[in-house]
Design goal:
Layout (H helix, E strand, L loop, with lengths): L1 E5 L7 H14 L3 H4 L2 E4 L2 H10 L11 H15 L4 H7 L11 H11 L10 E8 L4 E6 H4 L9 H8 L9 E4 L6 E6 L1 H4 L3 H7 L9 E5 L10 H4 L4 H28 L3 E4 L15 H17 L1 H12 L1
């Protein structure tokens, strides 16, 4: 079993998308043709759905390079803070920071009406049910067997990217019409979905060959002790989300590396120049994200080559 896991991270999803584009360039093959399972959270879930979507001719609908272009062309529209939204949300404190029109339009353009059960290779997308309080998984393996577990890829991508304070939660109904689920971003418990993916294939007939985990860049913003000591709920709202996401990603990285050992390969960029904000889709920051991705590829070129040999053989 060859497994790919892609972290959440908003606009920083450009980094893993570019790494995947490099892998496709080196192998001459599509990601969906080389992995048995693609797991994703939030922006990583969007990439996973895009990679696995079946095209009209039966081949993958999108290249990784095309999905990288999504961030460049659609990112500024998705994270477009109109004046009215800024005023009514009080900077995201009393309402979600962004209207979801841009996000929905991008998902419609890239995913259309494709469904979970139709994907070329299995996907595992994380979300969270805020009403009945449980971790929710969009699993193509179950969708193929039962319409009660089938959803559109656009719904799965929208749900997994509903990051609290950034976008509104979304209600999705299964294809059988059996139940509606109110969902938010799975990043609250699995911003790095590597362990979810590991468990998903634990009972598979074939042994795990490789678990490739792609990050969206390490957090760089420091919170000094003297500054946070007097913080209350309002001051903690925005930083706490980043701290939780970062801490969860690091913990899962530790767990996956311990259990999968040499079969686990983690590719994470140090954000030396670009912002670690989830929503900085400015032209300048997009260029800097591209630069951080290029540096990661250059520094880990031997490891990427090893991964290519493993999955393309």
């Amino acid at each position: 079993m060859r497994v790919l896991a892609i972290d959440g991270g908003g606009i920083r999803g450009l980094i893993p998308a570019l790494v995947l584009a490099e892998i496709e360039r080196r192998t001459g093959r599509r990601i969906a043709e080389m992995f048995d399972l693609i797991a994703g959270t939030s922006t990583g879930g969007i990439i996973a759905c895009g990679l696995a979507r079946r095209g009209p001719d039966g081949s993958p609908a999108h290249t990784a390079e095309e999905l990288a272009e999504l961030y460049v062309s659609e990112g500024p529209k998705i994270f477009d803070r109109s004046l009215i939204q800024q005023v009514t949300s009080v900077g995201g404190l009393v309402d979600e920071r962004y209207d979801d029109a841009g996000l929905n339009a991008a998902l419609e353009a890239y995913l259309g009406d494709a469904r979970l059960k139709e994907v070329l290779t299995d996907v595992f997308i994380t979300a969270y049910d805020i009403q009945d309080r449980f971790a929710f998984f969009f699993r193509s393996s179950r969708a193929r067997a039962d319409d009660a577990y089938d959803f559109s890829l656009a719904e799965a991508a929208r749900a997994t990217s509903a990051a609290p304070t950034y976008f509104e939660p979304v209600a999705v109904t299964d294809a059988a019409g059996a139940r509606t689920y109110p969902l938010i971003d799975g990043g609250i418990y699995a911003v790095n979905p590597a362990m979810c993916a590991y468990v998903e294939v634990a009972d598979a007939p074939s042994e795990l060959e490789v678990l490739a985990s792609l990050g969206t860049g390490s957090q760089t913003k420091r919170h000094e002790f003297d500054d946070v000591t007097g913080w209350g709920a309002i001051e903690w709202v925005r930083p706490l989300i980043d701290v939780v996401f970062d801490g969860v990603a690091d913990t899962i990285d530790f767990e996956a590396a311990t259990l999968a050992k040499e079969r686990y390969m983690r590719f994470q960029a140090a954000l030396r120049y670009s912002s670690d904000a989830l929503d900085d889709a400015s032209e300048g920051n997009l260029r800097r994200l591209e630069g951080d991705a290029e540096r990661l590829i250059a520094e880990r070129t031997a490891d990427i080559e090893s991964l290519c040999e493993e999955i393309a053989g």
